[in-house]
Amino acid sequence: MSASYPEAGALFKPTPRAILFDAGFTLTFHDGARLAAYAAQAGVVADAAALEGAERALRAELRETEGVVMRTHDDGGFSWHEHLYRRLLALAETPGEPASLDRAASVILREHRISNAWRRIGTGVREALERLRGAGFTLAVVSNSEGTIEQMLVEIGLRELMATVIDSSVVGFTKPDPRIFALALERLGVAPGEALMVGDSPSADVDGAHAAGIRAALIDPYDFYPWARAPRFTDVAAVTDALLAAKTKS
Questions:
Q1: Which domain holds residue 84?
Q2: pLDDT score of 2
């Protein structure tokens, strides 16, 4: 889908030189098998497929409110992420007493901080990134994370497609702070008007990019954000299709 946002037709004009991507819920998603293995350390038996299948319900609970910045990493991301994993266990109907599920969520967070668990590559993502690279675009990741995003991208084979990776916990700026975007532009050697940000958060990715003078496209597969101030797409592959089509016409 692409929303009828007034500026949708102008999103790719002029054609950007650099595409900045968010990571979680954009390029990668939580790995159910890894989370289930972590929960097992706490004696909780979780179903990997159910954990991944609970994504829509989880994202519905995390849905942003217009005009309110969603804070996920201002405390290092730890309390927010522990709540996220606890809710994910519940939404996946994981059996266990509340105290057991609380312990499992704590273990998942502990292990995630060591080795990022958001490593399941989205459908069509790798192919889309390769198409963009092949068409001459420079790619980068700008993520609110815990200092582990770059190593995770190395391990899943996406880092080689990126010119740079900006992790908020490493650089000290958290989206939507425009300084994190400015740092990405500086590293890439492009001007704000030559870049496009692609992410799933209206406040962090869209508003943050706009504050830095960068165009933005919102990944909104469940049609949660009709009020967003950016064109909306179902996934990275859909953005890629539209971008390459516009580039061909220009």
A1: 31-114
A2: 46
pLDDT tens, position by position, 115-138: 999 999 999 999 999 999 999 999
Contact 199, 140 (CB under 8 A): no
Q: Please report, to the nearest 10 degrees, the dihedral formed by the alpha carbons of residues 132, 160, 209, 245 taken in order.
A: 0
Domain assignment present for 2: no
Asked if residue 238 lies in contact with residue 207, where contact means CB atoms within 8 angstroms, the answer is no
Collapsing DSSP to helix, strand or coil, 206 comes out as helix
pLDDT at residue 6, as a whole number: 47
Q: How would you classify residue 93: left for phi > 0, otherwise alpha for psi between -120 and 50, otherwise beta?
A: left
> Does the pTM exceed 0.85?
yes
Indicate the residue among 114, 133, 165 that finishes a domain: 114
Angle at 111 between CA 107 and CA 103, to 5 degrees: 5
Instruction: Kindly tell me the burial class for residue 111, based on how many C-beta atoms sit within 10 Å of its own C-beta (0-12, 13-18, 19 or more).
Output: middle
Counting DSSP H helices and E strands in the chain, the numbers are: 11, 8
What SS3 class is residue 221? coil
Report yes or no: 85 and 157 within 8 Å, Cβ to Cβ. no
Q: Cα(121)–Cα(17) distance, rounded to whole angstroms?
A: 24
Structure tokens at 174: 């958290």
The span from the CA of 180 to the CA of 129, in Å, is: 22
Strands 164-167 and 138-143: parallel
User: CA torsion 79→212→125→77, rounded to 10°?
Assistant: -10
Distance between CA 123 and CA 195 in Å, rounded? Answer: 24
Flag whether 74 is in a domain: yes
The string of pLDDT tens digits covering residues 170-221 is 999 999 999 999 999 999 999 999 999 999 999 999 999 999 999 999 999 9
